[in-house]
Design brief:
186 residues; alpha+beta; 5 helices; globular
Length: 186
């Protein structure tokens, strides 16, 4: 965990605040195909700080007209309809990109995640529930993955002797043999 000053202030994309970043900018099709990409230093200014719930509501109710009271403050002259349409466009691209990855053999690594509720007095856990991943989570996850892949490829290409990239070991033959045996039993 990062200290609060980093996670909620200095490294957070709070609206209407300039942030120095190193960015990957794509020209990307609706199908998730990258037409071009650019890497460089940038200054970004977020116009709104949406939660996953805000983005999910746009996805769930694309025809609904939202009011200013239902969302965080929007800056720099953007409208609610522009923000909603951007989320919907990104959602469409993410869905198509995700499908293409899985069609090419990407693994589904959907693990069950637990959420704990804490006692207000003691801070100790007093209950739990299963966290249900939503489309807004998958949208963010897809672009984060796309960014990680782009940065890894760029690093490997330009710094092949200095790149430190994680590689998964080959499957152990014993485990593969066991899997084949179990499948044959079905």
């Amino acid at each position: 965990m990062l200290p609060t000053i980093l996670s909620e202030e200095l490294c957070s994309l709070n609206s209407n605040q300039d942030r120095l970043t190193f960015s990957v900018i794509w020209n990307i099709s609706e199908k998730g195909e990258i037409k071009s990409e650019w890497f460089g230093r940038t200054v970004i200014r977020s116009c709104v700080k949406l939660s996953y719930d805000h983005a999910q509501r746009f996805i769930d109710e694309p025809e609904r007209e939202w009011t200013e009271e239902e969302l965080p403050a929007i800056s720099d002259g953007y409208s609610i309809s522009q923000i909603k349409q951007t989320v919907l466009n990104l959602h469409k691209i993410a869905k198509n990109s995700r499908k293409a990855r899985f069609d090419k053999g990407a693994l589904h690594l959907d693990k069950v995640k637990l959420q704990f509720s804490l006692d207000e007095q003691t801070g100790m856990p007093n209950g739990y529930s299963v966290y249900k991943q939503k489309d807004s989570n998958r949208l963010e996850e897809e672009f984060m993955l796309l960014t990680n892949i782009a940065v890894a490829d760029k690093t490997k290409k330009h710094f092949p002797d200095k790149a430190f990239l994680r590689r998964h070991p080959k499957p152990q033959s014993k485990m593969v043999d066991e899997l084949v045996r179990k499948i044959k039993e079905i």
